[in-house]
Amino acid sequence: MNPFFLRIMREPWAINPEVAQDYVDALAKLIEGKLVFEGDPAKYAPTIMQGAYPKGIKPRASMANSGSGRGRSGSVSLIPITTPLMKYDQECGPRGMLSIANYIKAADANTSIDGIILYLDSPGGTVAGTKVLGEVIRNVQKPIFAFVSDMAASGAYWLASQCDQIVAENGNAQVGSIGVMLSFKDVQPALEQQGVKFHNIVSSLSEDKNRLTDEVRNGEYDNTRTTVLDPLAQGFIDTVKSTRGSKITDETIFKGRMEFAPGALTVGLIDKIASLDETVSMVLAYDKKPIQTPNNPKSKMNKYPLMLAALGLTEIEADQDGYAALSEEQMAKVEGALVAANAATQKATDDLAAATAASETLTATIAAKDGEIAQLKSEKEAILKGKATESATLVVEKEVDAVVVNPDLAAVKSMTSSERHAYLKAKGY
Fold this sequence. Notes:
About 45% of the residues lie in helices and about 10% in strands. Helix 4 (about 95-110) packs parallel to helix 5 and helix 5 (about 130-140) packs parallel to helix 6 (about 155-160). It folds into three domains: about 5-285, 2-enoyl-CoA Hydratase, Chain A, domain 1, CATH 3.90.226.10; about 300-325, no CATH class; about 330-420. It has helices at about 5-10, 15-20, 25-30, 95-110, 130-140, 155-160, 190-195, 210-215, 220-245, 260-265, 275-285, 305-310, 330-405, 415-425; strands at about 15, 45-50, 75-80, 115-120, 125, 145-155, 165-170, 175, 260, 270-275, 300, 315-320. It is elongated, with a radius of gyration of 46 Å. With about 425 residues, the protein is an alpha/beta fold. Strands 2, 3, 4, 6, 7, 8, 9 and 10 form an eight-stranded mixed beta sheet that branches. Strands 1-5 form a two-stranded antiparallel sheet.
């Protein structure tokens, strides 16, 4: 079976859906064997545009790996990306993303080239190959701009977002369609009508093999959506945010819609609307900071232990200016930690208020009990005082009676209390 057909049928695509529908007729002809591939690979090869450095801008030193030579020519490599994107070179001529990556690397290493422009007019393409090419673009040492002629949709915008700047040629240029889709065309029924019989035998040890394909054939899409497409789409979104997150002002743009250039400029999908010649001048004037290399490593930052603990890390990389980038997943972890901390703080505040109220109630209860105790003490002292007075009176009365009966007993007054008590007892008093 034609390998081009297999790539169309089996791989997830980051492509504008309206454009994808335009290929239905071609796909039908491909199935019937009536589609003939013709193309001129040379027209997809890079070309050189000459520009003059803007007034006051000196030619920059070459950033080639060798470090030799200086970029003085004003030469800019123009690399066309004007077809649906596929990982490998296509039978009809266009270069695959791996070949485009090699074009970019060669231009970056060429000391006579001062910058690179990706000339984009593409609806996107397969997810396979996009991440690899995007990383090559992101790591280019020289200024690299994306110039959108008519369209940079889906996978094509993924590539554009990794450039230093994105320029649209005019107001009719469209960008966006940030998302992933899978278009599955089941040709088995058509072939069965032609007498073809399919026999799929799966090993008893391989029960998950072809499960997703069988589910899709049966109209069950949820598993494919959540396990295949959603992770790819999230990776797409994270990639765009990693380079243009500070510029994009409308988060709904990540839901997959397209924007014409004026709207795209407003929401931060592009940086400017300008001609190709103006873009060449912008590339030559662009002051690009050197990218970190193994000889210029990123520093390790570990002075924010609470944040690092929330991320489950002991340190994080920071660039030479002290900036550290967090992925959306990492920011979500920090947000979760802050929410949990706020909840814990609120609970502690509520617990303290409850404890304070309980303490005030207890203090009031203790004060009331202290009053009751003081009253009881007072009453006790009064009772004891009354009893002591009564006892003393009784003793004196008995002593007086004794004196009256027997005046000689007046001497008892000189006795001690114990002597007096014994004497009176002996006398029957």
